[in-house]
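ugh ok fine here u go
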Amino acid sequence: MADETNGKGNSRTTDASNENRNSLTGDASNGNGKSSTVDPSNENDNSCITDEPKRNDNSRIADETNGKGNSSTTDASNGNGKSIISDETNGKGNSSTTDASNENINVSTTNASNGNDNSSITDESQGNDDSSTADSSHGNDNPSKDDESPSSADKAQSTIER
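structure:
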């Protein structure tokens, strides 16, 4: 079933000027789309659900002008994103979570303008931070147990030796 000026359509249901579509359901001027459900003006789309003009998108759910995205969930103008969810202008990160204009992100969790961050959790503009826990300027403090006064056992021993 194809409706309204479809050219070369190989889909079950296509509407309104679709070209070369191989999807189950495609709507409103999609070109070369191979998805289950796609909406307005998607081109070369191979995802399950995509919304609002997307090109070359291979993700499950991608929203708002994603180009060439291969992620589970990406939002708001992500380019070449391979992440699950990521937040706020991360560049070249490798995270699980990405939102809002992220490019090439592959980190676990990054927040607020981190660049090239490959750590587990980093907050607010930290660069190349690979330490577990660092506390206020301690340098090589590894004493076992040094006491300045001799113990009562030491005093008793010295009395016996005398």
